[in-house]
Amino acid sequence: MWRRIFVVFLKEVVDNSRDRRSLLVALIYPLLGPVILGLLISAVVDVVSADQARDLRLAVGNADRAPALVRFLEQRGVSVAPAPPDPEAAVRDGKLEIVVVIPDDYADRFRAERTAEVAVVVNTSRLSGLIALNHAAALLSDYNREVWGARIASRGVDVQVLRPLDIKSVDVAAGTHIAEILLFMVPPLFIFNLFMGGVYLAIDTTSGERERGSLEPLLINPVERWALMLGKYLAALLFTAAAVVVQLLAFKVAFQTAGGGTLAFAQVLTVPAIAGVFAMTLPLMMMAVGVQFIIATVTRSFKEAQTYLGLLPLVPAIPGMVLVFAPVQATAWMMTIPAFSQTLLLGAFVRGEALPIAAVALSMASSLVAALILIVVSARLYEREKLIFGG
Amino acid sequence: MIRVEGLRKSFPPVTALDGVAFEACDGEVTGLIGPNGAGKTTALRILYTVMTPDSGTAAIDGYDIVKCRRDVQQRIGVLPDARGLYPRLTAREHVRYYGRLHGLGGAELEHRIDALIDTLGIGEFADRRAKGFSKGQMRKVAMARALVHEPHNLLLDEPTNGLDVGSTHAVHRLIDGWRRQGRCVLFCSHIMQEVAAVADRIVVMAMGRIVAQGTVAELLARAGTDDLERMFLALTGRAESW
Predict the structure, then answer these.
(1) I need a labelling partner for A345 at 20 to 30 A (CA). Which of A7, A107, A375, B127 fits?
(2) In 3-state terms, what secondary structure has residue A161?
């Protein structure tokens, strides 16, 4: 019987490797995530490093009204430039990142030791704007503190009395690079791709086979139906595995290229590590193809199957998307949930943490059990008389 | 040799087969005829093992179609109701796939494929992909893959449906050839003239039952007419209406 299963497997692989759509989904789609993420990281690295490399240029409107402030800024290495006539338009159009505007009554209020206003015009929807604001705000607050300290001291009060807290942040992230946050997009992209890679084969070899009218003659051959199903299943699994490998290699290339290969993750993503991730997620691939087969078998037409299976990859990818913004601490029970456990493990892998063997084993075992159940259910569905009609 | 006894099958609320019994002998062509919805395709589907009967039995060369499904499948060559091809496989690959599913392989299989390509006149398009084949070409490939294991019994569901005159004649010649080789041929059709021209014995079905069987001459005598279509209408109890 294994020979017949191999005959079916081989036919489906040959048949689908001649299909542009199957190849596109298995070999080209997986590149999209790594390419987009690579470009994003390159862009972020450019912005951040460019900002760190040069000193802040600050356009200050009405600088002559605040000579002390300008002097302070210049002492801190800021080159002060005159502001354009319409600062808001200049910032909105992206001509300038940030403009500080000194109002008309500044000098009077400052001299009278009243609170004087300083306007900062910035576009925080741009990352570079946000960085500039952070920088400018720090400088202005330093100046604020200096002036205020001087005024308090002249009245005979110790400044420290009025400063109960001195906030210093210590960043404990393994890589302190801002671009590393983007790496958390890797798990959801990976899961999405895993559930997408074999989708076209699952549809083509089941709903498609039925719709072409080639299923009925196929079933008349002296081969058990479960064996036909298994041959097709293995072909879809091969395409899924191909999609996963292509994506992992693309991630490797993307991260080694993007941002000049400065990311710590690029060093982690070695060929043995890729092989490890592949092995760790193989049970999930088996499960994904099982789900695809069940849906493709019970739906009545190619289009119906395509509709459901087009949405399917989003479902397991959503928890990963949420985790990008709200990470959770992995616990044992989470390792029993297929797709979610792999998302968490990949998240840890991306952060450069060691993966506990027990967690990996639990994740693989639970997904494998789910996959085997789904395979048995698919085989049962193939035994039904209704198979040739669908539904 | 095909033997059918008391076959019943229903798809609630429809009763497709209501106690069907007939025989198709070796070296003979048996034509199963009946109006649309008479149950011909259901009867054939049960015989070629993609459906199981609710009750009754059928055997092919003595092998029960339910209990000995694999043995039956090895002894039948089928042109089913659905006879689609794989658009991305060549004609030759279609035949090779079915040959391998029957456990054939190597030089023996390639030899058989060449012979079938020759007999059925597939040579010209044998190595072209099926996408864009004409109906006649598709039918030839569907026939070739059904014959690769040299089955003794042939079950054909409307084998000439949709074919032009030339291709129809080619199919008739093929059927005649199998008869002379001593094979058992069962085919169904709703065209009286075709059945009368090709079949040795005719089984007439209507409403899931066998209403008459015999040679053309016997059936004409029974209906008391010498016109095939009138006989068909008389036997199936159908008026000339939809």
Answers:
(1) A375
(2) helix
Closest to A238 (Cα-Cα) out of A3, A33, A8:
A8
Same-domain status, A77 and A210: no
Whether residue B196 is predicted with pLDDT greater than 70 in this model: the reply is: yes
Contact A229, A286 (CB under 8 A): no
Per the document, the length of chain A is: 391
Which chain A residues are closer than 8 Å to B98 by Cβ? 221
- pLDDT band at residue A169 under the 50/70/90 scheme: low
Could you tell me the two tokens for B22? Answer: 């007939």
Of B97, B103, B142, the CB nearest to A11: B97
| Residue B241 pLDDT greater than 60, yes or no | no
Q: Rounded to a whole number, what is the distance in Å from the CA of A299 to chain B's nearest CA? A: 18
Asked if residue A215 and residue A154 are part of one domain, the reply reads no
- A198 vs A293: CA distance, rounded Å: 10
B50-69 pLDDT tens trace:
999 999 999 999 999 999 99
Residue A172 within any structural domain of the chain: no
* Same domain, yes or no: A209 and A253: yes
Residue B141, pLDDT above cutoff 50? yes
A7 in contact with B at a CB cutoff of 8 Å?
yes
* β-pair partners for B214: B202
Among residues A129, A162, A195, the one where a domain terminates is A162
Residue A167 lies in a domain: no
Mean pLDDT of B167-193: 92
Nearest C-alpha neighbor of B88 from the set B140, B125, B132, B122: B132
Mean pLDDT in residue range A188-205:
93
**One domain for residues A237 and A357:** yes
Does the ipTM surpass 0.85? yes
Q: Between vectors from CA A82 to CA A79 and to CA A87, what angle results, nearest 5°?
A: 115
Domain that holds residue A265: 2-44+178-388
Claim to verify: residue A38 and residue A65 sit in the same structural domain: no
Contact yes or no for A7 and B88 at CB 8 A: no
pLDDT > 80? residue A159: no
Residue of B nearest to A213 (CA): B84
Of A146-160, A199-213, A290-304, B218-232, the least confident = A146-160
Q: Determine what percent of chain A is predicted with pLDDT higher than 90.
A: 38
> pTM of the entire structure?
0.82
> Which two three-digit tokens encode residue A98?
């940030």
Tally the domains of chain A.
2
For the segment(s) B2-83+151-236, the CATH number from 2.60.40.1930, 3.40.50.300, 3.30.70.60, 2.40.50.140 is 3.40.50.300
